[in-house]
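Troubleshooting log. The previous structure file for this entry was overwritten by mistake, so regenerating from the original sequence record. Sequence copied from the archived sheet and checked twice against the printout by T.R.
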Amino acid sequence: MKKKLISIFLAAAMTMSLTACTQEPSGGDTTTTSAAGGDEGTTTTAAPQGGNSGETITLRVWGGEEDQALLAELADDFKAAHPDQTFDIQIGVESESTAKDTVLTDISAAADVFAFASDQIASLVRAGALANLDTMSEVLTNYSGKSIDDVKAANSAGTIGSATFKDNLYAFPMSGGNNYFLYYDANVLSEDDVKSWDTMLEKAAGAGKQVGMTLASGWYLSSFFMGAGFASSTNDDGTTNCDWNGTSGDGYTGVQVVESILGITNSSAFLPVAEGDLSNQIASGNLCAVVDGTWDADAAQAAFGEGYRATKLPTFTCNGTQLQQYTYTGSKLIGVNALSENVGWATVFAEFLTNEQSQAKRFEQRQLSPSNLVVSERDDVKANIAGAASMEQDNFGSIQDVGEKFWDPTKTLGELCAQKSLTVGDTAGIQQALDTAVEGITAAVS
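Regenerated output below.
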């Protein structure tokens, strides 16, 4: 990982380079702003090139494989919106879930504009990979008629919060609902059946079906701990605070939470699903319910047919009490590479990819929940089964705040639960597993 990549010398060099190739934008002088990002580094920004100088502006954009056709369409729309400037927009494949790791391998070689999941924002900012968008407001206004404040007002507070780090906006919200909830087949399970894990698993077993969920992932496993009142947070040095091996503010112990999970995995109707394999398991026809997100809405609808339904996560039994299962709630974002040679135009393009019209197309083609407030009020958005469940689940979630050391230990702990390597009643064994996980989660960041 590269820390504080942009030195004062490099910032000055970029400023001279950008100024040299930037003509006066229509309606004002060329502006080049060097904005300090605190101990996150320095971002050099410049106004986009105005008029038609004959020079082609090259912009590279990364998005998920499933977004390639839509990105191509939106790129054409962007070109049409700026007929006086020639663009070469190159579209590449990079999953939102892996964007951070790829970008931080070599920020200078990464795309000018890229999509990523909101939980990655702290690492990207600390490494100097994201342009501070609050410093780009004038540039954006000149070329889109919108300020950064307009962008903040147009999107839900939660998604803007997930795109903000230390009071500065570092990305544009692309979609909301980056959480998970419960899909179920109403031909097998009733609305009441899916309110609790206990009843749902009992009815699924009676029907010869299974309920699927990924446990070997901190993103999913955390839902039980959050439901019991446990929380996590990051420190300025990137380390994570985590108390899963102790007692939560609600009075539940980590051991009790693990025993709750084991109570679920011990059911013959429960299917632990490997991360990334949910859509395949849905398509198998063996499931009557699955914990998943909006990205697999088409697979769930195809599998459950007329019985296709979705709702918030069920409750689970912990120390004799029913607790609501929570999620980390977040969004999908589009950021601008701080080292982009065309950082001004990259900002304008990134905003375009996430504006009201683009989010409407993204919903229509991908069924992704919009973060834009106007699009969210559309009747077809409100009637969308997966989107409605995602918004319902947002009432039982919190913004993810964990460091990079969180993921491997929680994946291991989840795998122990999924494979029944831990046993209900073995308090010492469960406590040891929790102590090991927390030790890894809270370890220093190298």
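The chain has a mean pLDDT of 88. Archived copy saved in two places this time.
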